[in-house]
Amino acid sequence: MQILDELVAAGRRLDERGWVPATSGNLSARDADGVWITSSGHHKGRLDHGHFLRLDADGRPPAGTRPSAETALHLGLYRREPDIGAVLHTHSVNATVLSRVYPEGVPFEDHEIAKAFPGVDTHASAHRIPVWPNDQDVDRLWRAIAPHDLPLPGFLIGGHGLYAWGTTVDDALRHVEAFEHLFACIVLEHRLRSTP
Ligand SMILES: [Zn+2]
Hints:
35% of the residues lie in helices and 20% in strands. With 196 residues, the chain is of the alpha+beta class.
């Protein structure tokens, strides 16, 4: 299935960049029949079609299977935004560190890469990537996020990682790369400016 081939390739790409260490992260995509999501506990750089579950229209996994622990966040995004076709969740070092340094949200402005995000057509703009406190109760975490506008195609969870999405797997991957470019720039800029 092409959609699973795309998710397998995305997992390899995220692993090559070091953004899904250990078995962290989870990947999903939606097609006409429901949502495909990684089952729990697999390394994202070594996925095959057997590592994905299809959730039915009510978000239920097949009997006897165990989807990723954070399935509720994926489903919340799909239900809320009909245009979302894929959601990618990563645990990069820079995303994790910045979410701790900026618990009120990661601000950035005057970055050309912002134009990778929908609705942004100039570097001359200021944005804030939202950060929500981590919570092992993922349903409760989604209830905290759901009432808020999400002007950028991604958010951070404190001390945890990035959620990013797009209309397709490629689109979501492009957004992850844009966020990670920003994170790397912000971290490096901090380091250089604080070095005498
Ligand atoms: Zn996670």
